[in-house]
Each structure stands twice: as C-alpha cells, then as structure tokens.
Write a structure and sequence with these properties.
The chain is mainly alpha-helical and 269 residues long. It is 66% helix and 0% strand. It is globular and about 55 Å long.
Length: 269
C-alpha cells in the first residue's frame, strides 16, 4: 500500500503548521543567494577582457558550489520538518559540517544533467526570428523542443531528486552512492514523483495573481510533500492500516497501488 498524492499533501500541510516562517525564511535566503550568484560576478568583473571573463566564470562557479551545499542543507531542514524534529535556520549549513565535498560533487553531476536536459531550450532561441515572422513550422518546432526538454528533464533529473535527502540522512554516504540510491528509490515511484510535482501547477499559476508572493507558501508546501514521498520510499512511514485507508475513487486514487480484490475475502475466511 502506498500513500496517495492527496495524503502526502495532507501530511505536508500538517507538518508545516507553525513552521512556515522558517521554511519561508530559508526559501528567501536561497533565492537571494541565487540572485547574488547570478549577478555579482558580472558586477565585480565587468569588461570583455579574457581575464575579466575568466574571473567572472570562476567566481560564479565557486558560488554555484556553495549553492549545492546549501541545497543539501535545505533538504535537511525539510527532513526535520517532516519528522517533527526541532528545526532552525542553521540547518541550512548542516552539510558544511558533514563533508561538504559530497554535496558539491553530487551538485555538479545534477547541474550537468540539468544542462543536458535544457539543450533543446537553448536551441529554440535560434527560432525566435522565424517565430516573430509568423512561421508556423517554427512554432511547431518550438513546442517540439519544449516537449523534448521536458522529457529529458523527466528522464535525467527526476530519478536523482532524493540525492540531497540521502546525503543529509547519511553523513558517511558518498556522492556517487547517494545518486545510485536515489535512482533505486525512485525507480518504481518516478511517475508518482512527477504527478506530485504536477499537482502544484495550478497553485503556481494562481500565484501570478499575487505577484508570485504566494510562492512563499506554495514552494515549502511542495517541498514538504516531496519529503514525505522520500520518507515513504525509504519505508520510514507507511499507512497504519492499508485495508481501511483505501480512499474512495477519485483522481488521486490512480496514483495508489490497488489492493488484491480477494484480500478481504481471504481475511474473513
């Protein structure tokens, strides 16, 4: 028996009660750090000289390594939230005390996979002139490239969504082992992870009407739901009584594992 998407989200809402401020603070900190990482190198090393370009890239690369380590700390924070353990802003820096090179190596691998998945998007920029000219073929090709990038993201990055969770949970685990274990955990749950993330699309679209301020609540909500899926895949949590927790037929019931139709008859026998 597996939890439905609805149940995972219900548990996430319950776990976040009273802990939204720390989750929102962590989100704002990571956003600010990402903003600095993307803009500060250009401000510090402006110019077209080879030295400026080299320093620009090097400084940005170093900041991206720091972001990888912070990202693992974010997952450690959400693990504490999901497990109802004490959590604080200092959790973001937990991995710095637990062989941070593991998060850096894993992060570099994930960045590489993300960039491979984005190659069709990069190529689509060459179509903008034809699209603005009203070329139907260019528009269809653009949608085809977007779909290809989405498929590559699904195949290349989703299987490793639990990597930072594993690094936070197991200080002795290497980056390679965490990547392999994440692949194993998601092997039979990849579609559930995908549909769980897709279930938040509506809330993200609605956040447009709040000038994206609502994302401060939506993103922690989604992240905590994914954390509970990770805990379930590890066997840390499970429905207490599968025979009685089967939900009534609904859209979400498609994502749960059906019970054997004869199981109730056998138990009565």
């Amino acid at each position: 028996m597996k939890y439905t998407i609805r149940k995972l989200k219900t548990m996430a809402r319950a776990a976040l009660r009273g802990k939204f401020p720390i989750a929102i603070g962590a989100l704002l900190f990571v956003f600010l750090l990402s903003l600095i990482s993307g803009n500060l190198p250009g401000l510090l090393f402006s110019g077209d000289s080879s030295a400026a370009l080299c320093m620009n890239w090097l400084f940005g690369f170093i900041l991206s390594l720091v972001l990888c380590t912070i990202s693992a700390g974010v997952d450690f924070l959400y693990l504490n939230i999901a497990r109802n353990k004490p959590c604080s802003f200092s959790d973001l820096f937990y991995i710095f005390q637990q062989q941070p090179d593991r998060a850096i190596v894993a992060g570099l691998a994930l960045i590489l996979l993300e960039n491979i998945a984005m190659i069709p998007i990069y190529f689509s920029s060459t179509l903008m002139e034809d699209i603005l000219a009203g070329s139907t073929n260019a528009i269809f090709l653009l949608f085809g490239l977007l779909f290809l990038s989405l498929a590559l993201t699904f195949l290349l990055t989703l299987p490793f969504a639990f990597t930072y969770f594993l690094l936070a949970d197991h200080p002795e685990m290497s980056a390679g082992s965490a990547l392999k274990e994440s692949l194993r955990l998601t092997r039979k749950n990849l579609s559930r992870l995908f549909f769980l993330q897709c279930s938040f699309i509506g809330l993200m679209l609605l956040s447009i009407f709040t000038l994206y301020i609502a994302l401060l609540w939506v993103v922690p909500y989604m992240k905590t739901s994914i954390t509970f899926l990770y805990l379930e895949c590890r066997g840390e949590i499970a429905p207490a009584n599968p025979a009685r927790t089967q939900p009534s037929p609904s859209f979400y019931s498609a994502f749960s594992t059906p019970e054997h139709p004869d199981s109730e008859d056998h138990s009565e026998a």
